[in-house]
Amino acid sequence: MDRRMNEQELISSFDEALTEKHIFVMYQPKINHVTGRMVGAEALMRWRNPEYGMQYPSEFIPVLENNNLIYRADIFVFEQICAMLRKRLDEKKNIVPISFNMSRVDIYNTNYVDEIENIRKKYRIPVKFLRVEITESSAVGGIELISNVLDKLHELGYIVEMDDFGSGYSSLNVLKDLPVDIIKLDMRFLSGDIGGRGGTIISSVVQMSKWLNTPVIAEGVETIEQADYMKSIGCKYIQGYLYSKPITEEEFLDKLDSMGHEPVGPAMDLISTMDAGKFWNPESLETLIFNNYVGGAAIFVYHKDGHAEILRVNEKYIKEVGMNQTELEILRSDTWACFDEKNKEIFVKTLEKAIASRDEETCETWRHLYSDCCGEDEICVRSFVRMIGNAEDQYIFYAMVQNITNEKKLYEELYNSERRFRFASEQINAYAWEVDLATRVMKPCFRCMRDLNLPPVVRNYPEPAIESGIFPADYADMYRDWMRQLEEGVGTIEGIIPLTAGRIPFHVRYTTEFDENGKPFKAYGSAALVVDGEDGNPDNSTDSE
Ligand code: C2E
Ligand code: CA
Ligand code: CA
Question: Whole domain around residue 520: which residue ranges?
Answer without folding.
Answer: 423-529
